[in-house]
Amino acid sequence: PLPTVAIIGRPNVGKSTLFNRLVGKRLALVDDRPGVTRDRREGEAHLLGLEFRIIDTAGFEDEDPQSLPGRMRTQTEAAVREADVALFIVDARAGVTPLDEEIARWLRSADAPVVLAANKAEGRAGEAGAIEAMALGFGDPVLISAEHGEGVADLFEALLPWI
Ligand code: GDP
Ligand code: MG
Question: Where on this chain does GTP 1 bind (predicted)?
């Protein structure tokens, strides 16, 4: 069976955009409004010759934003459990939010292998956010732009040890 990567992160950071880029089909719904991806999507990802199963989660999007325990018990938990590595996406332009910090805490408590990526980093826009993201405790984030296809080689390198 193919190794599995679960894309994790709060709404609107670009999880589905990255999924679509890696899978190459429009299997995941992308929308400006947070919460649009209703279901978990799976596909076969291709990244510089590397092949793996990828899960686009929306588990932090559907439930009452005030109810953290509720959010944590969604499909996201299941996806991380069955994944070889969690690809934790933050928005390099927005910087770290309280929900990013909650997700980071939860990933740590789940003891999941984590690769941190700061998306929307095209054109050096994400440098401040990327520095901020180091405080999440998963090391230096990989700077990517899912929309523009930047940082692919760095993402490949970061995932390689786990898949
Ligand atoms: P999700 O909620 O995490 O799945 O996020 P989406 O993939 O639905 O994307 C949310 C919004 O961010 C959309 O408007 C995307 O076009 C935009 N977006 C995604 N990736 C990038 C990127 O690399 N750069 C920029 N500037 N915007 C992006
Ligand atoms: Mg989505």
Answer: 9-16, 56-60, 119-122
| Residue 118 alpha carbon to ligand 1 centre in Å | 12
ipTM confidence score: 0.99
Secondary structure of residue 159 in the 3-state scheme: helix
76 annotated to a ligand binding site: no
Q: How far is the CA of 7 from the centre of ligand 2 (A)?
A: 10
Q: Residue 27 CB: number of other CB atoms within 10 A?
A: 15
State the total domains in the chain.
1
pLDDT by residue for the chain (163 residues), tens only, comes to 899 999 999 889 999 899 999 998 655 555 555 554 455 688 899 888 889 999 988 756 555 555 555 555 566 788 889 899 999 999 999 999 998 998 999 899 888 899 999 999 998 788 888 899 999 999 999 999 999 999 989 999 999 999 9
From the CB of residue 7, how many other CB atoms can be counted at a distance below 10 Å?
28
Q: Is 15 annotated as a binding residue?
A: yes
